[in-house]
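Sequence only, no structure available. Ideas?
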Amino acid sequence: MEIKNKNILITGSAKRIGREIALHLGKVGANIIVHYRSSQKEAQEVVNTLKSFGVKAVALQADLEKTQDTLKLAQEAIKHFGHIDVLVNNASIYYPVELDKTTEEDLDRFYNVHVKSVFFLSREFGKIMYERKEGRIINISDYSALRPYKDYTAYTISKGAMLTLTRAFAKEFAPYVLVNAILPGPIVPAPEYEDMETPLKKTVLKKWAGEQEIAKAVEFLIKSDFVTGSFIPVEGGRLIC
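Reply:
I predicted one. Tokens follow.
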């Protein structure tokens, strides 16, 4: 699939990795819906930059912990752009919680953002993509879905469910909609993360990648016509370290 003039929705794209994906794809001619939950100012700044590239862009707010907001986001996206060619499920929440202290609320939060919102957005847009006989759904998971680490069990199991969802939807919408997942490793430190060195000691390439590496992987999966149901590691060799 060519990227130019395609309509792309990227969840959680006001900051960090999502922002970089949006700007990267906008530079090569895609029209972008910038989704945000609370970062309205940052989302509008991304929109303004995208418009300077000569592409269409709009910011839409939704709290993906709420199913009604997720479904409304799908409706608003269709209203603005008519259809969506590429969906990038990037929105995420990330925090540690010890196993014995994990609450039902914690499980619900991770599941709602990483599984339920991905399910409903993928289903709504995937049906339209299938009817149009072309589309891409790209889920930003995590390498820890394959190699969990301590005190992040609630987070990692929800990211693992995202991988099963990826392969299930790849079958549901074949042969027209290609559905894949990206498994980031040490891309950028989490906000307020003080220990910059320990993650690198556990990574073969011994460096933080930067958001651009995920954007390049997204571009590859959009352009590829023969990759579906796959998990693309972008983790500097963390899985073999």
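The chain has a mean pLDDT of 95.
Hope that gets you unstuck.
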